[in-house]
């Protein structure tokens, strides 16, 4: 049996680190379709999974990839797919099935410039709202945004853990620069924590497939052939999993799959703070844009400007209350992102007029020039004074 | 022109009579939603009898379906059952099948689900020879949404979206399945319940991608709009037109009004499955450990 955890220090790109993170987390099934700039994930995991007793399957498209991942998950395996913009659009249908059927799995999006075919080989972060709202209907979602290969490894493991804990597909919203960037990746088995699937706590006949615990999460998940004779449907369903087409069941079913995320937002949220102690202006950002923002933060500090940064490692659920509390004590926020202003809308919503919010948009194709972010910081400070 | 059926006597109700295949049915989900005269009830019964004859249990078999009238089949079977998205049953089943190589995965869905929106998944799963049995109930239209024409509607037949008659060429399903690589391909009508059951038994025993088409009446939509009459009239029509053609070239098995309905087993030709080849060419060749079952 090959090693699941490649202990040691490596030089690898973010895509490869995602693949290694998946294997380390216990992923046994990857179903995917080639697309730039995620292909290195599929290539790496097609080498690795057969070594550890797993299966790599290249499907006919991204629709079937997401469907096969759900099938693999219900067969009892930790399953994953990875894609980029156009494929992400195709996966929205079965992402919805995964959310409705509360199926643990991981979907990685190495974002490129869009819309449509857009910039296949160049960076973008313009799928962030699609990550939140892309599949039809209401639901809660979890999306993580790595900003380095090291974090690509760690957050892929974290995505599997969150998917098992909260019973839903978890998104890793990386981007082309992080995906293709080569850096040092340290893999220390002692630092790896994995969450295994919760099996039913009751025997068949007594167990209810969608009976939720105090965290609003279903109590356990039987695999195909475990003897539970589950019925799993994308239709609105009751605790047994049986379709019930009425407003009362919709209320129970859909409100719970949204609330289970927001009730547990404090456990899910992971934010990294930099130089926040005396910050008057706060950069709120994520993914590769946090790397460029760090450059801007240093330039600002060199000029004596009191700037800090909140890096959203968890972008969804959006940490609304943290931003809201902060808004009372700072002059303003600067939100750089490689899109025309997506997460900034969430910041504005949370700030609710209490402080100035400045978007630093970029249509994609390259990362921000830190000096542009610096100008935005100066503008916010000028506005405050 | 089929003769009009006589009025049926009111059936007596026997409270103490149980369905002999109750062990395979979710009795708390019955009665089902299917119309009287539809072939889906027959098909579902045949499937349960096939499982019974093969002595298969819920530990051995899981069912996946897509969306539509046939898509509801999974919900009535007391097995691990997965009611997925429109057209994606085979793709979902692929994940189940590769992760559970020792179990039977059965896809039960309709002609629109499997061959219009799901057509790409069908041909690729057949090409890969993924270990699954696909049962297609072909009623020549989209029944659940009200009778629109579909990928198997014969030329000239009407649907709610083919008010002047369908002018698109339909798929010949056994021919499509055979040319995509299915190891077992059969067609029967829902009139031939015993043959349907036997074909299901054969399909379930074949390793790899097996396919059975069950031609079925849709008296509420297709039958009514095309003046075929009720369910019984359509079964009489099948009786008149059915010709058993085991081993014949499925290329000539296309269906159409007034034409013969070629039925039988068209293909029964084993070849290595997806996992056979994966194990041989990837796992064993490189001395890896076999995928965990």
What can you see in these coordinates?
The complex is a heterodimer of chains A (385) and B (293). With 385 residues, chain A is an alpha/beta fold. Chain A folds into 2 domains: 8-191, 3-Layer(aba) Sandwich (Rossmann fold); 272-384, Rossmann fold (3-Layer(aba) Sandwich). Helices cover 39% and strands 22% of the residues of chain A. In chain A, strands 2, 3, 4, 5, 6, 7, 8 and 14 form an 8-stranded mixed sheet that branches. Chain A has a 5-stranded mixed sheet with strand order 11-13-12-15-16, sandwiched between helices. A two-stranded antiparallel sheet of chain A has the order 1-9. In chain A, helix 2 links the parallel strand 2 (27-32) and strand 3 (55-58). In chain A, helix 1 runs parallel beside helix 2 (39-51) and helix 3 runs parallel beside helix 4 (85-100). The longest helix of chain A has 18 residues, at 149-166. Chain A is globular and about 65 Å long. Chain B is of the alpha/beta class. Chain B has one domain (40-276): 3-Layer(aba) Sandwich (Rossmann fold), CATH 3.40.50.970. Chain B has 10 helices and 10 strands. Chain B has helices at 40-53, 73-76, 89-99, 111-117, 119-128, 173-180, 193-205, 219-225, 231-241, 274-284; strands spanning 61-65, 80-83, 104-110, 132-138, 141-142, 148-149, 184-189, 209-215, 242-244, 261-268. In chain B, the strands form 2 sheets. Chain B has an 8-stranded mixed sheet, with helices on both faces. Chain B has a two-stranded antiparallel sheet with strand order 5-6. In chain B, helix 2 links the parallel strand 1 and strand 2 (80-83). In chain B, helix 1 crosses helix 7 (193-205) and helix 4 (111-117) crosses helix 5. The longest helix of chain B has 14 residues, at 40-53. Chain B is globular and about 65 Å long. The model of chain B has no long low-confidence stretch (mean pLDDT 94). Strand 10 (231-233) of chain A pairs parallel with strand 2 of chain B, so a sheet runs across the interface.
């Amino acid at each position: 049996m090959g090693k699941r955890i490649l202990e040691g220090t490596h030089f690898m790109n973010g895509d490869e680190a995602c693949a290694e993170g998946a294997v380390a987390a216990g992923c046994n099934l990857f179903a995917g379709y080639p697309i730039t700039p995620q292909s290195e994930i599929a290539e790496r995991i097609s080498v690795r999974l057969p070594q550890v007793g797993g299966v790599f399957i290249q499907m006919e498209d991204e629709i079937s990839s997401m469907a096969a991942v759900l099938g693999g998950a219900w067969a009892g395996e930790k399953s994953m797919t990875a894609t980029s913009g156009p494929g992400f659009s195709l996966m929205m249908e079965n992402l919805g099935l995964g959310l409705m059927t509360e199926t643990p799995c991981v979907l990685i999006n190495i974002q490129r410039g869009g819309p449509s075919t857009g910039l296949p080989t160049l960076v973008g972060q313009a799928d962030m709202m699609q990550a939140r709202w892309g599949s039809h209907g209401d639901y809660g979602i979890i999306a993580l945004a790595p900003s380095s290969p090291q974090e690509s490894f760690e957050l892929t493991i974290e995505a599997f853990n969150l998917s098992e804990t909260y019973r839903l597909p978890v998104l890793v919203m990386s981007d082309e620069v992080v995906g293709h960037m080569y850096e040092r990746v340290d893999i220390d088995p002692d630092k790896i924590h994995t969450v295994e699937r919760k099996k039913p706590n009751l025997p068949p006949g007594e167990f209810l497939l969608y009976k939720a615990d105090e965290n609003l999460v279903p109590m356990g998940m039987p695999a195909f052939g475990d003897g539970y004779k589950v019925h799993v449907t994308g239709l609105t369903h009751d605790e047994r999993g049986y379709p019930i087409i009425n407003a009362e069941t919709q209320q129970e079913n859909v409100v719970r799959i949204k609330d289970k995320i927001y009730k547990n937002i404090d456990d899910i949220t992971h934010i990294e703070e930099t130089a926040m102690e005396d910050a008057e202006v706060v950069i709120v950002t994520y993914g590769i844009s946090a790397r460029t923002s760090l450059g801007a933060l240093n330039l600002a500090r060199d000029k004596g400007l009191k700037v800090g940064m909140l890096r959203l490692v968890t972008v969804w659920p959006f940490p609304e209350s943290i931003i809201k509390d902060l808004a009372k004590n700072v002059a303003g926020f600067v939100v750089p992102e490689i899109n025309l202003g997506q997460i900034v809308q969430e910041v504005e919503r949370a700030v609710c007029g209490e402080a100035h919010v400045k978007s630093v948009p970029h249509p994609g194709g390259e990362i921000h020039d830190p000096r542009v972010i610096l100008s935005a910081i100066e503008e916010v400070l000028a506005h405050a004074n | 022109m089929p003769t009009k059926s006589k009025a049926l006597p009111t059936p007596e109700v026997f409270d103490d009579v149980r369905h002999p295949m109750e062990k395979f049915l979710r009795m708390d989900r019955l009665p089902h939603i299917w119309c009287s005269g539809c072939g889906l009830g027959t098909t579902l019964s045949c499937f349960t009898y096939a499982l019974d004859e093969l002595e298969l249990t819920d530990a051995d078999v899981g069912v996946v379906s897509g969306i539509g009238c046939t898509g509801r089949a999974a919900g009535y079977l007391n097995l691990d059952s997965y009611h997925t998205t429109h057209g994606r049953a085979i793709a979902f089943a692929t994940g189940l099948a590769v992760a559970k190589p020792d179990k039977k995965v059965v896809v039960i869905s309709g002609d629109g689900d499997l061959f219009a929106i799901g057509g790409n998944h069908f041909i690729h799963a057949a090409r890969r020879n993924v270990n699954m049995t696909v049962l297609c109930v072909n009623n020549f239209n989209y029944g659940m949404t009200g009778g629109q024409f579909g990928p198997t509607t014969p030329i000239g037949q009407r649907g709610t979206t083919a008010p002047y008659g369908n002018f698109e060429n339909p798929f010949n399903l056994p021919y499509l399945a055979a040319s995509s690589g299915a190891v077992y391909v059969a067609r029967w009508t829902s009139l031939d319940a015993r043959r349907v059951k036997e074909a299901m038994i054969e399909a379930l025993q074949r390793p790899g991608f097996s396919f059975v088409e069950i031609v079925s009446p849709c008296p509420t939509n297709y039958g009514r709009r095309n003046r075929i009459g009720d369910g019984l009239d359509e079964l009489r029509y099948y009786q008149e037109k059915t010709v058993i053609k085991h081993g014949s070239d499925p290329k000539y098995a296309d269906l159409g009004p007034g034409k013969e309905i070629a039925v039988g087993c068209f293909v029964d030709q084993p070849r290595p499955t997806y996992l056979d080849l994966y194990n041989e060419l990837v796992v064993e060749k490189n001395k890896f450990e076999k995928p965990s079952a």
